[in-house]
Amino acid sequence: MAGTKRKKKSAVWRKIHALRCEDIKLWCVRRLPILKWVPSYNLKENLIPDTVSGIMLAIQQVPQGLAFAVLSSVHPVFGLYGSLFPVVIYAVFGMGRHVATGTFALTSLISANAVERLVPPVNNNFTTSNNTGVLCLSEFEMQRIGVAAAVSFLGGIIQVAMFVLHLGSATFLLTEPVISAMTTGAATHVVTSQVKYLLGMKMPYISGPLGFFYIYAYIFENIKSVQLEALLLSLLSMAVLILVKELNEKFKRKIKVVTYVFSLYNIFTCLLFLT
Questions:
Q1: Residue 127, by phi and psi: left (phi above 0), alpha (psi -120 to 50) or beta?
Q2: Are 41 and 162 contained in the same domain?
Q3: In a domain, 7, yes or no
Q4: Would you tell me how many other CB atoms lie within 10 Å of the CB of residue 226?
């Protein structure tokens, strides 16, 4: 038995010593794609377009991040933090050049589910301010942020484990109808969660089985509490977004000004939201 153990140990050590610098370098490049594309990055051709794209995405991420923070039931400023760090991480570990990462509506909705269950608004009897923090957040808000951070940390651990085990290839097992159904279902839940803001209504948090239908039942029962100003502003914003999107898809190769109009609209929306 001792001889067998020694042979196994010696075999392991031989494999370790057999590792060369090229093997280690290849392993690092596979795990860190930034080591592959940074040395071959063309500054003259890609720096200016990438800078312009980054500025436009940053402008768009400001109102989008604030909105997703509200969707996550946390303080809006944490939506800006959530828009910054995923991009930095993806720049190191990501492989797609045309992927704009950041806050996402579905993950925000899942996080809000945990936040609302563990720290419901009914328990909002904490102190109104907390002078220990720079943002002067209440204890109630700090507890909600702690729950959201714990959920995000757990999700990050799961994603790292999937990354190490190369489980990304499992997505090839999902057929196109399954992916389309999941996308449609997620979009439906996200839109439903925003209906109360579109109508300017105040409604309690509703979740659980058949919560989707209970939300619309509550809306129709309290249809008289809809604020006309919020409804008109929501319809106007959606009409402008749909119109510009359709014009951009139809005339973007012929008239470049449509793209600039859409960009100016994003800037105007961001400035209007901040003011």
A1: beta
A2: yes
A3: no
A4: 14
